[in-house]
């Protein structure tokens, strides 16, 4: 699903955020990415969907070497992955339904298929009854559930989440985790960068720990391993 070989990332200011990363993530895995602030987690995540391009090395996602694709092809590549952000990134003037449907409208799917898929993912996140509401009429947890629904409406093979529970209260956080695990149980690879020690230590999955741009720990059913 995702293979990184000898990946380096040096920013113009001299900061090295990836320092010789080699890793493979297989189809259907659930992976936490952990580490202290500034360790390189976000860069690691962003390189997977070509938000950042490595200075050196190879990254293959869904069989595509994304270090070599043209900028004009990036949008097409991203149709095969879902991305969930900490700050939701919903379009404020569109309803819940329209926010999710937009991801299908841009690839010119039929209205019938769009409705079917949108209602299916709203059902998964238990928000069908709020389809006509605007984002600012929802709680933070509800907005994140809509963000997740939008990320999976294209039936991606991998979902990448960057601190998806960072702005949520503990109860809502567990609700969001149940959704991610349900998505994963259906065969979708889930990669989640998180600072939430309780999640990592309670809902056991593979843990990749990053420090100074290097993978320092890679464990099946690992633990968070940092004091908060």
Automatic annotation (TrEMBL):
Its main location: membrane. Residues 2-228 form the ABC transporter domain. One of its GO terms (molecular function) is ATP binding. It is a peripheral membrane protein. GO terms for biological process: cell division. It is found in: Cell membrane. One of its GO terms (cellular component) is plasma membrane. Keywords: ATP-binding, Cell cycle, Cell division, Cell membrane, Membrane, Nucleotide-binding, Transport. Coiled coil: none annotated. Part of the ABC transporter FtsEX involved in cellular division. This is Cell division ATP-binding protein FtsE. It comes from Perspicuibacillus lycopersici. The gene is ftsE.
């Amino acid at each position: 699903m995702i293979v990184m070989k000898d990946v380096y990332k040096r920013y113009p200011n001299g900061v090295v955020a990836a320092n010789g990363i080699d890793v493979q993530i297989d189809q259907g895995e659930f992976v936490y990415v952990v580490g202290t602030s500034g360790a390189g987690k976000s860069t690691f995540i962003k390189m997977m969907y070509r938000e950042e391009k490595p200075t050196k090395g190879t990254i293959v996602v869904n069989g595509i070497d994304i270090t070599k694709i043209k900028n004009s092809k990036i949008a097409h590549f991203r149709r095969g992955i879902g991305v969930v952000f900490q700050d939701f990134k919903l379009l404020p003037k569109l309803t819940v339904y329209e926010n999710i449907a937009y991801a299908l409208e841009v690839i010119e799917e039929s209205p019938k298929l769009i409705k079917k898929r949108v209602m299916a993912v709203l059902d998964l996140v238990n928000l069908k009854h709020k389809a006509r509401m605007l984002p600012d009429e929802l709680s933070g947890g509800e907005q994140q559930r809509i963000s997740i629904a939008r990320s999976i409406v294209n039936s991606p093979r991998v979902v990448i989440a960057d601190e998806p529970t960072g702005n949520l209260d503990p109860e809502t956080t567990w609700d969001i985790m149940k959704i991610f695990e349900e998505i994963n149980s259906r065969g979708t690879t889930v990669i989640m960068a998180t600072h939430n020690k309780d999640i990592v230590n309670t809902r056991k999955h593979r843990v990749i720990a990053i420090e100074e741009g290097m993978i320092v720990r890679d464990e099946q059913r690992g633990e968070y391993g940092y004091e908060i």
